[in-house]
TrEMBL record:
GO cellular component terms listed in the entry, alphabetical order: cytoplasm; nucleus
Phylogenetic lineage: Eukaryota, Fungi, Dikarya, Basidiomycota, Agaricomycotina
Family per similarity comment: Belongs to the adenylate kinase family. AK6 subfamily.
EC class: transferase
Ranges for region NMPbind: 36-59
Reactions catalysed according to its record: ATP + H2O = ADP + phosphate + H(+); AMP + ATP = 2 ADP
Gene Ontology molecular function: any one: ATP hydrolysis activity
HAMAP family in UniProt: Adenylate_kinase_AK6
Organism expressing this protein natively: Phanerochaete sordida
Subunit structure: Interacts with small ribosomal subunit protein uS11. Not a structural component of 43S pre-ribosomes, but transiently interacts with them by binding to uS11.
Name of this chain's protein: Adenylate kinase isoenzyme 6 homolog
The protein's role, per its UniProt record: Broad-specificity nucleoside monophosphate (NMP) kinase that catalyzes the reversible transfer of the terminal phosphate group between nucleoside triphosphates and monophosphates. Has also ATPase activity. Involved in the late cytoplasmic maturation steps of the 40S ribosomal particles, specifically 18S rRNA maturation. While NMP activity is not required for ribosome maturation, ATPase activity is. Associates transiently with small ribosomal subunit protein uS11. ATP hydrolysis breaks the interaction with uS11.
Keyword Nucleotide-binding: yes
């Protein structure tokens, strides 16, 4: 039997990655384990230091990749993180880049209590399409999908679209196993 796909859900902080990943894990036609990479970094101490000014951890990428490699190799994973370029190309079956209007994004980050400098940097990153460019330069174009994430309608439509993709993936991999 084919393992489940490896889906990377990425985007600027505040674009809805975790909400999308949780809903996708619930609605997926194949079992998918949701891994919030930021939480994993904190739980497993996969960081070098905590940056007070930015209120974020400096991730030890080697430790993180070593931790994820055996999990990802089994498949059936949703990796949810604000960056994707550190993940090896061979890991990903689908890379979903969530996008959000920068004024909505500003409000979301403000509600989270982010420092102004961090809100400004993330807002600028969204406007400049930093995460989208990163995904497009790190993975084959046919597996990178850009989706708007501005409200509940987008969320539901995006999850439904990814579920359709998973069904197609399942069919392709079931056929491949029989030949």
């Amino acid at each position: 039997m084919a393992r489940g796909p490896v889906i990377i859900v990425t985007g600027t902080p505040g674009t809805g990655k975790t909400t999308h990943a949780q809903m996708l894990a619930e609605e997926s036609p194949v079992p998918l384990k949701h891994i919030n990479v930021g939480d994993l970094v904190k739980e497993k101490n996969l960081y070098e230091e905590y940056d007070e000014e930015w209120q974020s951890y400096t991730v030890d990428e080697d430790k993180l990749l070593d931790e994820l490699e055996p999990i990802v190799s089994e498949g059936g994973i949703i990796l949810d993180w604000h960056t994707c370029e550190i993940f090896p190309e061979r890991w990903a079956d689908l890379v979903v880049v969530l996008r959000c209007d920068h004024t909505k994004l500003w409000d979301r980050l403000e509600k989270r209590g982010y420092p102004l400098k961090k809100i400004q940097e993330n807002n600028e990153a969204e406007i400049m399409e930093v995460v989208l460019d990163e995904a497009r330069s790190s993975y084959p174009p046919e597996i990178v999908v850009e989706l708007q994430s501005e409200g509940t309608e987008d969320l539901e439509a995006n999850v439904a679209r990814i579920v359709q993709w998973i069904n197609a993936w399942k069919e392709q991999h079931a056929e491949g196993a029989e030949q």
